[in-house]
Amino acid sequence: MAYIKSALLEETGYVVLDKYNQAADPKEWLDLEYVDWKSSGDTRFAPIASKTGTVECGGFWTGDEPRTDKDGLWIDSQVAKAPNLVRRAQEPGANVGRCRVIELQPTPYGETLYNLHQDDNNRLNPDGTGWVVRGFFNLTDDKDSFFVLRENRTDPAGEVRIALPAGAQLIIDTQRLWHATYHPGAEPRYCLITSWTSGPELDAYMAKYNGVNKVESVPMSEEFLAEGQRIQDEKLAARAAALAARGERDWKPVMSEA
Ligand SMILES: [Fe+2]
């Protein structure tokens, strides 16, 4: 048995859809209730569907009756404030696990590289069922920001940088690819993140919006990229040294939240 996966996502681990006309919708994310939840970077989250149907960010595999990131329970108070976001999360018709808006404070590139992580979307996911991937709908118009994707956390070769204007729509196998967001400027970035189960519904959705699994990386100077890599190296070394000093072993950072 094997998981059901998307053929379009298999080659690169990401798909970029047509841009959504974000400016036509109200800024619903400003009305939602947020909770402090440290993820990769300085973040808060507004859950719209969660494991328990309450405004919380716990992993689906934690607490009572642990399960994989599927069958999220919609939170009535949040759904009432964000009908367009809910409509968009439900449009594919694929099973929805967690659905939440992330608020990310400005993050320099070196910090972004340090924040690179893989998600844990498929813990407890039964073999033979659909592989859980995530949709990212950029809500704010972050013209200078980009999503960073790597196959290997510390190897810049093959890094992909995907632009994040308002309406950018990405679907990413975030358990496979290391990912984090570079976000310069002064204002926070908001993005809707939805866990979807792979299958024919998600495939049809990606086809409908002309999904492509290769895009041009946002061009940055050699100096910018090298300085970011230097900072990642430095921060990872400092972290390893701090752990060693405490007699702890470093672990592979796997997060689930962004
Ligand atoms: Fe993540």
Mind sketching the topology for me?
Blueprint: H1 7-10, E1 14-16, E2 35-36, E3 43-50, E4 73-74, H2 76-79, H3 83-90, E5 96-104, H4 109-115, E6 132-138, E7 142-150, E8 160-164, E9 169-172, E10 178-182, E11 189-197, H5 200-208, H6 222-245
The chain binds fe (ii) ion.
Explained architecture:
By secondary structure, this protein is of the alpha+beta class. It has helices at residues 7-10, 76-79, 83-90, 109-115, 200-208, 222-245; strands spanning 14-16, 35-36, 43-50, 73-74, 96-104, 132-138, 142-150, 160-164, 169-172, 178-182, 189-197. The strands form 2 sheets. Strands 1, 2, 3, 4, 5, 6, 9 and 11 form an 8-stranded antiparallel β-sheet that branches. A 3-stranded antiparallel β-sheet has the order 8-7-10. A hairpin with a 6-residue loop joins strand 2 (35-36) and strand 3 (43-50). Helix 4 packs across helix 6. The longest helix has 24 residues, at 222-245. The chain is globular. Bound molecules: fe (ii) ion (FE2).
